[in-house]
Amino acid sequence: MSDNWPTNDTMKFPNYRILYFVPNIIGYVRIILLVASWIHIDSDPKLFVVLYVASVVLDALDGIAARKLNQTSAFGAWFDVVIDNVGRGMLWSFIYKWGYFVSALEWLVLVCTHTYGPTWKTAGTDTPPFWVKAVMANNFRTVIGSYAIAGLHVLPMWLYGLQKLEIIYTWLGSQAVAGITAILVSGRLICALVE
Asked: Given 9, 62, 80, 84, which residue is catalytic?
């Protein structure tokens, strides 16, 4: 055996208990909801929306649970983003012929940031551009950070709704729909600049 290979004495074995952390169990439920929503994406738009939104709500809760229960982990952080990317990728690929390009960008960002590990927010540059700092300030809890996250998460759902739920036009009218779409698209563009 080569001297470069780790031995059992030096290898760190994974902690499989992490798989049973509450936030990760929430993640498994989110996957089930995404699969169920995908089954209904074309045949029952209202059920799709309910299932997809339930997954999004659980996305907000898993981070809260991780912090409250002190169950944060590198796996959980990665798993959460993977589930997010699968859900949005499903939507982008359904609503737009070239939507997989948006999904590919999101997966590329995950792979690149994952290679930096916990230092992903500061790696690769001494001083990130001002717009990156502004969006990521206070863990995205600023006006511009919320705006970018709305573009990231809400835009694909909004575009799906415009295609499948005619009632949106009835409730809001075409001018409001155009305005909301423009706001969400610009938020997604800001997010893309940060990515």
From this structure: 84
